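ARCHIVE CARD
CATEGORY: sequence design from structure
SOURCE FIELD: tokenized fold
FIELD CONTENT:
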């Protein structure tokens, strides 16, 4: 501390030390975010889901000329290609393994944590929010669960958050380059997951409208940014114009597929408000084990700070930033309410809410800390009072984080084994090891929805004719049968063996017709 004209100011050296410590804390937070997402990643979840390798197959097929170039990859389910590109690069470096398919998701999860902190800092101008926002997202159940799986949604949030960050930074610094970079990142993100296009367009439009005066100043730069974004989006726009169904969730999943009427409006309303359910958000999740263990996507300790963040004073949470957050809060449930897959919440299609709740939590934490310090000074209590409160809070955070780790790393693998197709690898290993002397293999033990991707992944270049059901030819000699139940086997078929699920029940029965 130095004194200038009777006023105490921080010395440059002290400021440098403070910034250095803050940067070190940020790097440690990002390292922890990456570490918790990479920890035991080959075993949790317990086996590769077909969604995890479909993107890699799609890109590999295009690169090898088996399929024409396309922005959509159709392997029973229609996928967008961005995560498949990351998988392809990872598999090229490390070979196609579970770790190679999932590692990009984990690293993108760390980038998501950084993007959350950067956007919180950009919205409120408080450097403390950079670290707080990053730290909350680093340990968030919602994002940890999603960023340990090698699938489309893992690539959505990094591009969305960084795109919004650069657009807003460009508006405030009058930088056409930043705004253009933001639009390009948002456009690249559109190739990650179908929900991203809607959310990116909605949120960037809201941001530009709220910052109308700054938008006018950068009008020319915005036209350039828009042109750059459209250029990146052109392959996607062209493909969707030819077949709009490619950008829908599925033929049976649109809430308004049967039209807009009293019943569908009621369904939409129920789905929309269910995404604000405290029980689902903080205690149970959405009930889909593919999305994570049956615990809340947010921690219970976050609830009061989210509310405090919403009402934080303007000196911490400026009005325009608050308006943007309120728009974000209002649109976040739409991905899970304009579609209806399970009659309830869908916390993957609404993952855009995860960084918002982290930002509000970090604002609430900062406001609470400042109020606590003011209260302590007013009461003239010792600094130990603040330390005691901080220690108690840290203990609660660590306890809830430990509970999540137990739910995810200890109990979840057994719970999620079936939904992650545990036993498929062994099923195909059995077929590939016993394919000599057969002309065909017939599967009834496979999920028809994922059949195409599984065949391409586990049996590339096979000499066998493949059937996804008991076709008539499957009852002729030289047939190998992988059946869901023994009752499906022809009377004269010879039993070969079984493959088990994780819980010891039978995944598939194998029979031979010679």
């Amino acid at each position: 501390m130095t004194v200038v004209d009777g006023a105490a100011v921080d010395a440059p050296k002290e400021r440098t030390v403070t910034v250095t410590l803050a940067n070190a804390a940020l790097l440690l937070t990002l390292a922890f975010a990456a570490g918790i997402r990479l920890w035991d990643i080959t075993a949790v979840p317990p086996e590769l889901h077909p969604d995890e390798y479909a993107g890699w197959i799609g890109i590999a097929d295009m690169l090898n000329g088996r399929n024409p170039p396309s922005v959509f990859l159709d392997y029973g389910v229609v996928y967008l290609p961005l995560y498949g590109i990351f998988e392809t690069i990872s598999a090229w470096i490390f070979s196609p393994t579970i770790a190679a398919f999932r590692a990009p998701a984990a690293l993108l999860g760390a980038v998501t944590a950084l993007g959350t902190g950067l956007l919180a800092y950009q919205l409120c101008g408080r450097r403390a929010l950079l670290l707080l926002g990053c730290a909350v997202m680093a340990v968030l159940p919602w994002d940890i669960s999603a960023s340990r799986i090698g699938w489309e949604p893992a690539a959505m949030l990094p591009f969305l958050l960084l795109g919004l960050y650069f657009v807003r930074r460009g508006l405030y610094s009058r930088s056409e380059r930043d705004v253009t970079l933001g639009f390009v990142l948002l456009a690249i993100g559109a190739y990650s997951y179908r929900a991203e296009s809607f959310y990116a367009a909605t949120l960037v439009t809201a941001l530009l409208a709220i910052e109308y005066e700054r938008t006018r100043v950068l009008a020319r730069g915005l036209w350039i940014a828009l042109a750059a974004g459209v250029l990146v989006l052109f392959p996607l726009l062209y493909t969707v114009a030819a077949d709009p169904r490619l950008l829908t969730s599925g033929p049976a999943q649109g809430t308004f597929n049967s039209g807009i009427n009293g019943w569908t409006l009621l369904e939409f309303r129920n789905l929309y408000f269910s995404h604000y359910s405290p029980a689902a958000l903080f205690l149970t999740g959405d009930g889909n084990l593919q999305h994570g263990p049956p615990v809340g996507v947010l921690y219970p300790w976050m609830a009061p700070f989210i509310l405090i963040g919403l009402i934080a004073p303007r000196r911490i949470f400026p009005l325009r930033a608050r308006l943007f957050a309120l728009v974000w809060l209002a649109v976040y449930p739409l991905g899970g309410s304009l579609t209806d897959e399970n009659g309830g919440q869908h916390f993957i299609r609404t993952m855009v809410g995860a960084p918002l709740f982290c930002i509000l939590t970090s604002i609430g934490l900062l406001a609470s800390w400042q109020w606590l310090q003011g209260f302590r000074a007013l009461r003239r209590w010792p600094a130990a009072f603040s330390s005691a409160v901080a220690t108690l809070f840290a203990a609660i955070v660590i306890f809830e984080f430990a509970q999540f780790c137990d739910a995810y790393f200890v109990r979840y693998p057994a719970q999620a084994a079936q939904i992650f197709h545990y036993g498929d690898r062994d099923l195909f290993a059995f077929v590939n090891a016993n394919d000599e002397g057969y002309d065909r293999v017939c599967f009834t033990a496979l999920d028809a929805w994922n059949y195409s991707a599984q065949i391409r992944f586990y049996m590339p270049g096979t000499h066998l004719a493949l059937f996804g059901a008991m076709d008539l030819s499957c009852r002729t000699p030289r047939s190998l049968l992988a059946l869901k139940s023994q009752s499906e086997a022809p009377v004269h078929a010879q039993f070969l063996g079984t493959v088990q699920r994780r819980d010891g029940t039978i995944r598939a029965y194998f029979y031979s017709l010679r």
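CARD ANNOTATION: The two ends are 89 Å apart (CA to CA). Residues 60 and 66 are 8 Å apart (CA to CA).
SHELF: design records, drawer C
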